[in-house]
Amino acid sequence: MSANDRREFLIKLGTGAGVCALAAQGVASLRSLVPNVSYDAPTTVKLGPVADFSDGLKFLADERLFIFRDGNTFHAVSAVCTHLGCTVRAEALSRPETATVGGAPLRLSHQFSCPCHGSHYSGDGTNLSGPAPKPLAWFRLSVATDDGQLVVDLADEVERDFRLTV
Ligand code: FES
Protein backbone atom coordinates (compact mmCIF):
# COMPACT_ATOMS: atom_id res chain seq x y z
CA MET A 1 0.00 0.00 0.00
CA SER A 2 1.46 3.34 -1.08
CA ALA A 3 1.63 6.38 1.17
CA ASN A 4 -1.19 8.01 -0.86
CA ASP A 5 -3.42 4.96 -0.55
CA ARG A 6 -2.79 4.87 3.19
CA ARG A 7 -3.61 8.56 3.51
CA GLU A 8 -6.81 8.12 1.52
CA PHE A 9 -7.77 5.10 3.63
CA LEU A 10 -7.17 7.00 6.86
CA ILE A 11 -9.21 9.99 5.63
CA LYS A 12 -12.12 7.68 4.74
CA LEU A 13 -11.83 5.89 8.07
CA GLY A 14 -11.84 9.21 9.95
CA THR A 15 -14.81 10.52 7.97
CA GLY A 16 -16.76 7.32 8.59
CA ALA A 17 -16.03 7.43 12.30
CA GLY A 18 -17.15 11.08 12.42
CA VAL A 19 -20.42 10.29 10.63
CA CYS A 20 -21.08 7.37 13.00
CA ALA A 21 -20.40 9.56 16.05
CA LEU A 22 -22.75 12.28 14.76
CA ALA A 23 -25.48 9.72 14.03
CA ALA A 24 -25.16 8.22 17.52
CA GLN A 25 -25.33 11.68 19.05
CA GLY A 26 -28.43 12.50 16.97
CA VAL A 27 -30.20 9.31 18.07
CA ALA A 28 -29.31 10.04 21.71
CA SER A 29 -30.65 13.60 21.40
CA LEU A 30 -33.94 12.41 19.91
CA ARG A 31 -34.28 9.67 22.56
CA SER A 32 -33.90 12.28 25.31
CA LEU A 33 -37.13 13.92 24.09
CA VAL A 34 -39.12 10.80 24.98
CA PRO A 35 -39.61 10.32 28.76
CA ASN A 36 -38.90 6.90 30.24
CA VAL A 37 -41.76 7.26 32.74
CA SER A 38 -45.32 8.53 32.22
CA TYR A 39 -46.62 10.81 34.95
CA ASP A 40 -50.11 11.00 33.44
CA ALA A 41 -52.88 10.26 35.92
CA PRO A 42 -54.31 6.79 35.40
CA THR A 43 -57.66 6.89 33.66
CA THR A 44 -59.11 3.93 35.57
CA VAL A 45 -59.87 4.89 39.16
CA LYS A 46 -61.24 2.80 42.02
CA LEU A 47 -63.94 4.81 43.77
CA GLY A 48 -64.62 2.66 46.81
CA PRO A 49 -66.84 -0.25 47.79
CA VAL A 50 -70.22 -0.34 46.08
CA ALA A 51 -71.86 -0.34 49.52
CA ASP A 52 -70.36 3.10 50.21
CA PHE A 53 -72.65 4.60 47.60
CA SER A 54 -76.14 5.18 48.88
CA ASP A 55 -79.14 5.95 46.67
CA GLY A 56 -78.96 9.31 44.95
CA LEU A 57 -75.94 11.39 44.05
CA LYS A 58 -72.38 11.38 45.33
CA PHE A 59 -69.91 14.03 44.14
CA LEU A 60 -66.27 12.97 43.87
CA ALA A 61 -64.15 16.13 43.88
CA ASP A 62 -60.86 14.45 42.92
CA GLU A 63 -62.36 12.85 39.83
CA ARG A 64 -64.75 15.78 39.20
CA LEU A 65 -67.50 13.23 38.80
CA PHE A 66 -71.08 12.63 39.90
CA ILE A 67 -72.02 9.05 40.69
CA PHE A 68 -75.74 8.30 40.68
CA ARG A 69 -77.22 5.24 42.29
CA ASP A 70 -80.81 4.10 41.90
CA GLY A 71 -81.17 0.74 43.65
CA ASN A 72 -78.78 -1.62 41.91
CA THR A 73 -78.14 0.71 38.98
CA PHE A 74 -75.29 3.19 38.65
CA HIS A 75 -74.19 5.79 36.14
CA ALA A 76 -71.45 8.44 36.17
CA VAL A 77 -71.71 11.98 34.82
CA SER A 78 -68.72 14.28 34.43
CA ALA A 79 -68.70 17.51 36.45
CA VAL A 80 -66.44 19.19 33.87
CA CYS A 81 -68.30 21.93 32.03
CA THR A 82 -68.05 21.48 28.27
CA HIS A 83 -67.54 25.21 27.77
CA LEU A 84 -64.17 25.98 29.40
CA GLY A 85 -63.87 23.23 31.96
CA CYS A 86 -65.13 24.69 35.24
CA THR A 87 -66.65 22.28 37.72
CA VAL A 88 -70.44 22.32 37.49
CA ARG A 89 -72.67 22.23 40.56
CA ALA A 90 -75.51 19.82 41.12
CA GLU A 91 -78.80 21.33 42.24
CA ALA A 92 -81.49 19.08 43.67
CA LEU A 93 -84.79 19.16 41.79
CA SER A 94 -87.77 20.09 43.95
CA ARG A 95 -89.61 17.17 42.35
CA PRO A 96 -87.43 14.30 41.07
CA GLU A 97 -88.73 12.78 37.86
CA THR A 98 -88.20 9.72 35.72
CA ALA A 99 -87.29 10.36 32.08
CA THR A 100 -86.34 8.14 29.18
CA VAL A 101 -82.63 8.61 28.62
CA GLY A 102 -80.86 6.60 25.95
CA GLY A 103 -84.01 4.53 25.53
CA ALA A 104 -84.16 3.45 29.16
CA PRO A 105 -85.83 5.01 32.19
CA LEU A 106 -83.62 7.15 34.39
CA ARG A 107 -84.49 8.77 37.69
CA LEU A 108 -83.44 12.43 37.58
CA SER A 109 -82.97 14.02 40.97
CA HIS A 110 -80.70 16.94 40.05
CA GLN A 111 -79.79 19.43 37.38
CA PHE A 112 -76.43 21.08 36.83
CA SER A 113 -75.24 24.65 36.51
CA CYS A 114 -71.85 26.14 35.85
CA PRO A 115 -70.69 28.96 38.12
CA CYS A 116 -68.31 30.41 35.52
CA HIS A 117 -70.50 31.53 32.62
CA GLY A 118 -73.93 30.27 33.57
CA SER A 119 -74.43 27.17 31.47
CA HIS A 120 -77.31 24.94 32.57
CA TYR A 121 -77.63 21.21 32.07
CA SER A 122 -80.53 18.87 32.68
CA GLY A 123 -80.24 15.90 35.02
CA ASP A 124 -78.92 13.63 32.30
CA GLY A 125 -76.24 16.19 31.41
CA THR A 126 -77.92 17.65 28.33
CA ASN A 127 -76.81 21.25 27.76
CA LEU A 128 -79.90 23.46 27.95
CA SER A 129 -78.65 27.04 27.96
CA GLY A 130 -75.51 29.14 28.14
CA PRO A 131 -72.31 28.77 26.17
CA ALA A 132 -71.77 25.03 26.83
CA PRO A 133 -71.52 23.49 23.34
CA LYS A 134 -72.36 19.91 24.22
CA PRO A 135 -73.69 17.65 27.00
CA LEU A 136 -71.71 16.56 30.05
CA ALA A 137 -69.82 13.33 29.43
CA TRP A 138 -70.88 9.99 30.84
CA PHE A 139 -68.15 7.50 31.76
CA ARG A 140 -68.04 3.72 31.95
CA LEU A 141 -68.43 2.19 35.39
CA SER A 142 -67.59 -1.36 36.40
CA VAL A 143 -66.97 -3.39 39.51
CA ALA A 144 -63.41 -4.54 40.21
CA THR A 145 -63.16 -8.32 40.22
CA ASP A 146 -60.47 -8.39 42.91
CA ASP A 147 -62.08 -6.30 45.66
CA GLY A 148 -65.57 -5.34 44.52
CA GLN A 149 -64.89 -1.60 44.33
CA LEU A 150 -66.73 0.63 41.93
CA VAL A 151 -64.38 1.62 39.08
CA VAL A 152 -64.63 4.47 36.59
CA ASP A 153 -62.71 4.71 33.34
CA LEU A 154 -62.30 8.43 32.67
CA ALA A 155 -61.00 7.70 29.17
CA ASP A 156 -64.06 5.68 28.20
CA GLU A 157 -66.98 7.95 27.40
CA VAL A 158 -70.22 6.04 26.98
CA GLU A 159 -73.64 6.69 25.45
CA ARG A 160 -76.54 7.71 27.65
CA ASP A 161 -78.06 4.25 27.55
CA PHE A 162 -75.22 3.02 29.76
CA ARG A 163 -76.23 1.68 33.16
CA LEU A 164 -74.14 -0.47 35.48
CA THR A 165 -76.30 -2.99 37.32
CA VAL A 166 -74.69 -4.70 40.31
S1 FES B 1 -66.91 27.08 31.87
FE1 FES B 1 -68.95 26.54 32.25
S2 FES B 1 -70.13 27.99 31.25
FE2 FES B 1 -68.09 28.58 30.84
CATH superfamily of the largest domain: Rieske [2Fe-2S] iron-sulphur domain
- Shape field: elongated
Q: Could you spell the SSE succession in H and E letters?
A: HEEEEEEEEEEE
Number of domains: 2
Distance between the termini: 85 Å
**Radius of gyration, whole Å:** 28 Å
**Hetero groups bound?**
FE2/S2 (inorganic) cluster
- The CATH topology of the largest domain, please? Rieske Iron-sulfur Protein
Compile the SSE list and pairings.
Blueprint: H1 3-31, E1 44-49, E2 56-60, E3 65-70, E4 73-78, E5 89-101, E6 104-113, E7 120-121, E8 127-129, E9 138-143, E10 149-158, E11 164-165
Antiparallel strand pairs: 1-10, 2-3, 3-4, 4-9, 4-11, 5-6, 6-7, 7-8, 9-10
The chain binds FE2/S2 (inorganic) cluster.
The site of FE2/S2 (inorganic) cluster has 12 residues, from loops.
Structure description:
The chain contains 1 helix and 11 strands. The strands form 2 sheets. Strands 1, 2, 3, 4, 9, 10 and 11 form a 7-stranded antiparallel β-sheet that branches. Strand 2 (56-60) and strand 3 form a beta hairpin. The protein has 166 residues and is an alpha+beta fold. It has 2 domains: 1-38; 44-165, Rieske [2Fe-2S] iron-sulphur domain (Rieske Iron-sulfur Protein), CATH 2.102.10.10. FE2/S2 (inorganic) cluster binds next to loops.
